[in-house]
Write a structure and sequence with these properties.
Blueprint (H helix, E strand, L loop, with lengths): L9 E6 L3 H14 L3 E7 L10 E4 L2 E4 L5 E2 L3 H9 L6 E2 L6 E5 L2 E4 L12 H7 L4 H8 L16 H9 L1 H16 L8 H4 L1 H9 L3 H6 L15 E4 L4 H10 L4 E4 L3 E6 L16 E5 L4 E4 L1 E4 L3 H8 L4 H8 L3 E12 L11 E3 L8 E5 L1 H4 L8 E8 L12 H16 L7 E12 L5 H12 L5 E3 L9 H35 L1
Helix pairs in contact: 1-10, 1-16, 5-6, 11-12, 12-15
């Protein structure tokens, strides 16, 4: 009996070599191995996307994301599998402050996305005025209020229960620090599902917070939520890329268009069509692919699929972005104010400041502690605040330094400074975001074996990107296995005939 010839490897083209593209390739290799032929196309000359580590004052300082949420099991397992466990660094305690009314004020313990978990810690923080405290306490007695829409903003939920001061001085700066957005326009369902769940299941947000179940011992609820690597997070990128020895990576090449070789209605059913997609690069070269993964920002993906899927492109193009920048500064230790504790501070938009948030990196991360130098990272830019875009680098640094002087008395000349600009750096999950994702999923049914992944869709944090990449890899594997099973069934049926 002759053996059937071994099927040709599935050709996968991944567009974008940030954390999402790299982890998609990693998970695919682990699941299918030599059954794959992966080509990764990256428009820049480096891997990692917004994960970037720079040496500042002799220390590895991340100029993009500086932490990874390891309570997400997939992120913790990835670190372990890549052999990076010995490099993990956990942050010092103390939490963040709020710069409100010309003072740094402690954030009350037990908050969730800025929603306070108790009145006594809120009182002690002095973040609110007596009137604001009274209004926040009103949450305990106010009747249940139904949101006006199925996808309310965070602001709609919090203001109605706890008033403007809790929202303006706590919730808005915390979500602004995560999303570089305004909580009045951000979807609660997509950006703060914990708040949305409390509002949907409890009359009072306070009571809902108090009735939350305690984390289960050993079930991921203990230990640090966030970690980094002593190498900086580029160490994660380097470790990932080192595993992709069988992946062809084309740097400095951009994808212009992705189009089906045949119209979707003419594609064969039941098996992966040969040359399912044509991937055209800006240098004139063409890649044939059975599967395409777009791990690029939504606005880039929109341009790539515009010719083949104008409806999908319109949905992708409707996702808005905020322009942000990170200003990294190194100060002499002697110039840094004595007695400051915690990890940094956040700034409510109502304060009108340029700084959105500031991390005292040398206080936050033990591996950056130095008896001579203190490293500080400041973020500027929100969804509705592009003032920094029109400012040159020297002026931007001077303005940030002036605000640091006001906030914490840090008036010395920095030893080193570095500005990392991230234009269109932060996707905004505005009200209606989930409905847009649902419409995208429907549009993608017309493009079998084309996938979208990345921070534009189901979470802006690194752990969310890793989890989405794993889901994407699993979906690809399921699709290929189903196609192969169908092909085998047809062979058996034809043999029996």
């Amino acid at each position: 009996m002759s053996e059937h010839p071994r099927p040709a490897p599935t050709r996968v083209t991944i567009v974008g070599a940030g954390i999402s593209g790299l982890t998609t390739a990693y998970f695919l290799h682990r699941r299918l191995g030599e059954e794959l032929q992966i080509t990764m196309v990256e428009g820049t000359d480096r891997l990692g996307g917004k994960i970037a580590t720079r040496t500042v004052a002799g220390h590895p300082l991340d100029t993009g994301p500086d932490a990874l949420m390891v309570r997400a099991p997939v992120a913790a397992h990835l670190i372990e599998d890549l052999g990076l466990a010995d490099l993990v660094v956990t942050p010092n305690g103390g939490g963040a402050r709020i710069w409100s009314r010309n003072r740094l004020r402690s954030l009350p313990a037990g908050t969730m996305f800025g929603v306070p978990g108790g009145l006594l810690p809120l009182l002690r923080s002095r973040l609110l005025s007596p009137l604001g405290l009274a209004r926040a306490a009103g949450d305990l007695v106010l009747p249940r209020r139904r949101p006006a829409s199925a996808d309310p903003s965070v602001g709609e939920l919090v203001r109605a229960r706890m008033g403007a001061q809790v929202f303006n001085r706590m919730v808005d700066p915390l979500l602004g620090g995560i999303h570089a957005g305004r909580a009045d326009t951000l979807s609660a369902q997509s950006t703060a599902p914990g708040i949305a769940a409390l509002a949907g299941t409890h009359r009072s947000l306070y009571l809902g917070m108090r009735r939350r179940p305690a984390p289960a011992p050993g079930g991921g609820g203990t230990g640090p939520s966030l970690v980094t690597l002593s190498t900086g997070l580029e160490g994660l990128i380097n470790a990932l890329s080192a595993t992709l020895t069988d992946t062809t990576i084309r740097r400095g090449s951009s994808v212009a268009t992705v189009t089906p070789q045949l119209p979707p209605e003419l594609m064969p059913t039941g098996e992966p069509p040969v040359n399912a997609y044509r991937v055209d690069l800006d240098d004139g070269s063409v890649i044939g692919a059975d599967v395409v993964v777009l791990a690029t920002p939504a606005f880039e993906s929109a341009g790539i699929v515009a010719a083949a899927a104008p409806q999908l492109a319109a949905l992708l193009g409707a996702i808005e972005y905020a322009n942000v920048a990170t200003i990294c500064l190194a100060y002499p230790r002697a110039a840094f104010p004595v007695g400051l504790t915690g990890t940094g501070f956040l700034v409510p938009p109502e304060e009108g400041r340029l700084i959105v948030g500031c991390t005292w990196s040398s206080l936050k991360w033990p591996h950056l502690a130095d008896g001579d130098v203190v490293l500080v990272r400041c973020m500027v830019g929100r969804h509705d605040d592009d003032r920094w875009l029109s400012v040159d680098e020297a002026t931007l640094v001077l303005r940030v330094r002036a605000e640091l002087g006001e906030a914490m008395g840090l008036a010395s000349e920095p030893l080193e400074q570095f500005v990392q600009r991230w234009p269109q750096g932060m996707p905004q999950y505005l009200v209606g975001h989930q409905a847009r994702l649902d419409d995208m999923a429907a549009a993608l049914t017309e493009l079998p074996d084309l996938y979208l992944t990345g921070s534009s869709y189901r979470g802006v944090g690194l752990a969310s990107c890793i989890a989405d990449a794993e889901r994407t890899a699993d979906a690809i594997v399921s699709s290929r296995v189903a196609a192969q099973d169908s092909a085998r069934a047809r062979v058996l049926n034809s043999s029996s005939d």
